[in-house]
Structure formats: C-alpha cells, structure tokens
Specification:
With about 270 residues, the protein is mostly beta strands. The protein is about 10% helix and about 35% strand. The longest helix has 26 residues. It starts with a helix and ends in a 6-residue tail after the last strand.
C-alpha cells in the first residue's frame, strides 16, 4: 500500500514538474524589445542577457516597418541593402542612464524580426558599415539571428501579397504599355506634357513604383527644390499628379516629386 502511494506521489510530482517546464518555456519566449521611451513594437523581439550593457540597457528603434520607412531610409546607409527590398529595419543600441552611447556589448543579443527573408546586420562598430547576411532561423512568424554588438538589422526580401489582392505584373522590357496606361519614358507619356503644366491625378486611383533609389523633392526640379527623403527601390506609391519628366506621389502625411526616370506608372494612370 505504501509502495503504491509512493508511486502515485512520484507520478504527481513528475506531472507538476512537466507542467512547470512547459509554462517556463512559454514564459521564456523572446520578449519584445522597447525603444528608449519603453514603447514596444511587435515587429522586433530580443533576448538581451543581463549585463550586456554594464550599468545601462539595450534598446530597439524602428526604422522601417512592413516595407514602409518610419524614419529616413538614409539611416540604413547601404544602397545594396535598400536594393534588396527592406521589410523591417531596426537600430539596436546600448545607452547609459546619462544618455551616453555604448559602442560594445559584453554578450551577443538574439534579435527576431517579424516576417521571413534575409537577415542583414550592419555593425555600428565599423566605418563605413558593411552589410553582413547572418544565418537566420524561423520561429513563430519571426526570423531570428544573434548580433555581437550595436548596429542596424534589416529583414530584406519581398512582402507577401495580402490575401485577396493581386500582385502587380512586371512589365516586359520593350513591350508596349497597355492602352491608357503610359509608362515612364515612352513616347506620349511624361515627356509630352508641356513644361509648367501639372496634370492632377488625385481622383484617378493611379499608383506606381520606384525603379531605382530616388530622391523625393518638394518641387519638380533639381535646382530650387529641397530633398525630403531618399526612397528605396521597388516601393509602390499613390500618384496624385504628373508634369514634364516628374511624378507627384503621396508620402507619409504629405506629397513630393520624384523624377520620372526612376519611376514607373501603373494602372489607372491615363492622362
């Protein structure tokens, strides 16, 4: 009788231990990585060992989220990375309480970016920073890799097409544009618009894509206009107007102009 009771107690203890291990594993999931204000974003998680920054902390600052730059794309600092198509991009850095930047980590930090693609690391300890593609592993909708010090990390590739949407077809070089949908650089398109004439396309539903890294400007010229930002290759924007050699697009909460040499108009852009 005592032997049976002992067996029951042992089995109960093993069951409790197994449950605790499972709970511990769930609780040990990679936590969200906050910025300096304590705000987190689900696109980035990080396993930060204690003492990684002696007397300070490690933070994550969002540069790009789901293919859209929250900050300027110039913070990536590498045309090679931008040309790959940036899905997520984050600055990972150490900071002391007095606001002093930390140039080294005492331990490697595992960082996970939401989505799938190539995991690129630009080490802040290098000048200029050279992109390095790390061996990433997939985990619960994230791509994870370990970095040895502060720097910028980016998940590159192509965003998945949302369910129910149709991916834009890639024009065949030399093929004629569909009727009513001129392509940049073709006869009768932007070059045919008289100088000084702006055709409004706000209500047309016109969209287009950047074909190279291109500067976004305040005006449709390079002489008197200011540069608002630098746009990466192959991002889609809503078009609100065109003029001779230039395209006006919606960008964040405003609008700007890009050169028609580096932009291809899509559907709904008849003029």
């Amino acid at each position: 009788m005592k032997t049976r009771l002992l067996i029951v107690l042992v089995l109960a203890a093993l069951f409790t231990l197994s449950a605790a291990i499972q709970v511990g594993a769930q609780a040990g999931a990679v936590p969200l990585c906050p910025d300096v204000t304590g705000i987190t974003n689900p696109i980035v998680r990080a396993n930060i060992p204690g003492g990684t920054v002696s007397g300070g902390s490690v933070y994550c600052r969002i540069i790009a989220q789901n293919g859209t730059f929250i900050r300027t794309s110039g913070e990536i600092g590498s045309a090679a990375v931008l040309n790959q198509g940036v899905i997520q991009a984050v600055d990972v850095f150490g900071l002391l309480p007095g606001g002093q930047w930390v140039t080294n980590f005492s331990a490697s930090v595992e960082v996970c970016l939401q989505g799938s693609g190539s995991f690129v690391y630009l080490d802040a300890r290098q000048s200029p920073r050279q992109p390095a593609t790390l061996s990433g592993s997939a985990s619960d909708g994230y791509t994870c890799a370990s970095i040895s010090g502060p720097g910028t990390i980016a998940l590159t590739g192509t965003l998945p097409t949302p369910v129910g949407s149709t991916a834009a077809s890639t024009p065949v070089p030399g093929a004629p544009a569909a009727q009513g949908t001129p392509s940049v650089g073709s006869a009768g398109a932007l070059s045919s618009i008289p100088a000084g004439t702006i055709i409004d396309l706000t209500e047309s539903g016109c969209t287009g894509r950047t074909t190279k890294i291109v500067r976004l400007r305040t005006e449709p010229n390079t002489m008197t206009s200011s540069v608002i930002d630098t746009l990466p290759y192959d991002l889609r924007f809503r078009v609100t107007g065109v003029t001779n050699g230039w395209v006006r697009i919606v960008y964040r909460d405003g609008q700007g102009w890009v050169s028609g040499q580096f932009f291809r108009l899509g559907a709904g852009c008849a003029f």
